[in-house]
């Protein structure tokens, strides 16, 4: 039975069905989640499903969350309702009563007919107020491909349509199986983050206190202090940090990782053919090395023609090949073993300066030469708009995965996934879904250049940055986070943490607060009846001090990833 407000909803549904028909032809719109759903159904599954798939399968897997709030007509099939309709916007789900305080995760399996492969986009049309992309998949006709995405809303909606669109608008049949739309409250979403942090970023430890004979010491005062963090969290720096003692102190007080903003790029190190300039990066490297800060190498090549040295643009293919080999050798021989990572060929999903001139295997060759030059460095792809937006057809998550697999098949030793993270308004459920799919590759995932667009005011930047950082830090597949906040007297690329005098801006307050939250404060307590003191600490390096009567002892230990309790014995 429809509620008292059903007349308006029914009218909206009729309009949306007419709108879909105008775009799709005579297509079926699948009713899902009728009005009057009980809240208990919406919230009965409070845990997030991190599973995802990047392989194409002969049969679809069952729907996540048993379909969530989607209802399938006349079907007990565990893969849910299937429909195949001709057009570029089919099939569709109608959903009711979505709200702005909820995180929605959407998933399903897609198959095509009428084309061997195509990029399919899932889009949400809320109350006939435009559409927004909520997920993409590179679908095929010979198997089922998994789409995973999500969304939040800026306002509550009575009636919305989720439909599927072939990106290039050519007519074909689109089939969806195992569709699922699962809502989570903000508290549930936060619970997922905290649970992952507890499991992946922290570990239980027990300090055992004993005398020289091995007898337990009861009532000793045990103090534990974290001296270094395991999780790399850092920022870009520029030459402006050189000779600036205040800036240097500010940086090392906060960060354990760095990346040079421009100083290693080809146009900086070789502005003219044969004119090598490494003096500035040498000094920057000396600074980070002296403070035990790990550093990423960014970048060897950049496919964007506008970021290519002028003298390189006019080279013949033969001379260009010689120049790129010399570039790799000169850079990586000089800095062999110094940089933990190298972004080998930046933004190659969007640009193709080198591959257009040297052939489609150019990037695989770059990786091979780089691997030989510095076998200890982890070699990365690095790309933007993979997690930042759903609307960039050049850098969908499946496009990233496909390119990475192609490179590895060609022999490239590619060991890291770089996500730049230049966000406007973040779509956090979509961000998590993309990370889930990338996690299937079992490679370290780094956010390499995080910032928030400066079109937003300072307070809004701070809100959005906190959302992004909390999601990145909490995701089990993320191995490190770098901010793109190198400080210049005239400002930063998009977002500064401080002003030139190192006074915090709102985003700087967010970073300081999270850094404080994600570390173990000094833990102190007595050894118990078993001579032990236990605590739950963030991964990293520690010093423990034990005092008992007039005697004391001190020891160091590490909390590395692990499921078991770490046991440390201190003799006093």
Look at the helices and sheets and give the structural class: alpha/beta
Overall 3D shape:
globular
Poorly predicted runs = 1-14, 21-44, 72-89
Name the helicity range: 25-40%
H/I helix tally: 14
Proportion of beta-strand residues? 25-35%
Query: Averaged pLDDT, please?
Result: 90
Radius of gyration: 27 Å
List the main descriptive attributes of the protein structure presented here:
single chain; 572 residues; alpha/beta; eight-stranded parallel barrel; five-stranded mixed beta sheet; 14 helices; 25 strands; disordered N terminus
Describe this structure in words.
The chain is of the alpha/beta class and 572 residues long. Helix content is 28%, strand content 31%. It has helices spanning 6-24, 39-43, 186-201, 245-252, 266-269, 279-290, 310-313, 317-334, 353-358, 362-373, 397-409, 428-439, 458-474, 506-517, and strands at residues 29-31, 83-87, 92-98, 102-113, 117-126, 132-140, 145-151, 157-166, 172-185, 202-210, 221-229, 233-237, 257-260, 294-302, 341-346, 378-383, 416-419, 422-423, 445-452, 478-483, 523-526, 532-538, 540-548, 551-559, 566-571. The strands form five sheets. Strands 12-13-14-15-16-17-19-20 form an eight-stranded parallel barrel, surrounded by five helices. A five-stranded mixed sheet has the order 1-3-8-5-6. It has a four-stranded antiparallel sheet with strand order 2-9-4-7. Helix 3 crosses helix 13 (458-474), helix 8 packs parallel to helix 10 (362-373) and helix 13 runs parallel beside helix 14. It is globular and about 85 Å long. The relative contact order is 0.13. Residues 1-14, 21-44 and 72-89 have low confidence and may be disordered.
